[in-house]
Amino acid sequence: GAVVSQHPSWVICKSGTSVKIECRSLDFQATTMFWYRQFPKQSLMLMATSNEGSKATYEQGVEKDKFLINHASLTLSTLTVTSAHPEDSSFYICSARTFGPTTDTQYFGPGTRLTVL
Amino acid sequence: TQLLEQSPQFLSIQEGENLTVYCNSSSVFSSLQWYRQEPGEGPVLLVTVVTGGEVKKLKRLTFQFGDARKDSSLHITAAQPGDTGLYLCAGDNSGYSTLTFGKGTMLLVSP
User: Fold this and answer.
1) Which residues of B touch A95 (CB under 8 A)?
2) How confident is the model over B79-104, as pLDDT tens digits?
3) E strands, chain B, where?
4) How far is B42 from chain A (nearest CA, A)?
5) CB distance A104–B50 less than 8 Å?
6) What is the pLDDT of chain A when averaged over all its residues?
7) What is the DSSP secondary structure assignment for residue B99, as one 8-state letter?
8) Other CB atoms within 10 A of residue A32 CB
9) Which of B42, B50, B90 comes nearest A102 by C-beta?
10) In chain B, which residues have their Cβ closer than 8 Å to the Cβ of A91?
11) N or C: fewer beta carbons within 10 Å in chain B?
């Protein structure tokens, strides 16, 4: 299957700083990528849909000025958590969508654990 | 809004037991995907079912897509500790840009 990478895999930062997380599709081009947030033992919560060359579409309740998304190329999307606070600590996962002849498939990155002190 | 109801939410069993996880919706999906996620990692795709009534087997795992493409099940035979993880079903509809996820089933298989 297709491979999606994320970097970094974990990050610890001080409150008030900004953190950038990268998501790359390694062996395919992804016009659409998605960013999720996951709390312990819970399912994935979609934060935003990232479209190459255009503005991201944010889900209701997600602050677009807080979580900046850039999808500058067909293989790279970035999520920047600005002025991070302890409540932003979470597991962030990206995914990229491939389009097939009969069905589409989403492949997920390994996730990034963010801890804000 | 499309919803996927997944059950049970938690399942703790002994090694060797069988189990079934259900994923139900009132909506029709063009396909349905099952993922397994281990702690601290991203979900890994197990299977995609596309055709109503389709059955797919992956070693000890059997996946079924309902005839009406509104529901799906995952059956694990003779569960092993390595099967422990969060199982997620996700429905795809070409009219939406992303998958609709169930809330997940946390499976713990004890030796």
Assistant:
1) 42
2) 999 999 999 999 987 655 678 889 99
3) 5-7, 10-14, 19-24, 31-37, 44-49, 55-58, 61-65, 71-76, 85-92, 100-101, 105-110
4) 4
5) no
6) 91
7) P
8) 21
9) B50
10) 40
11) N
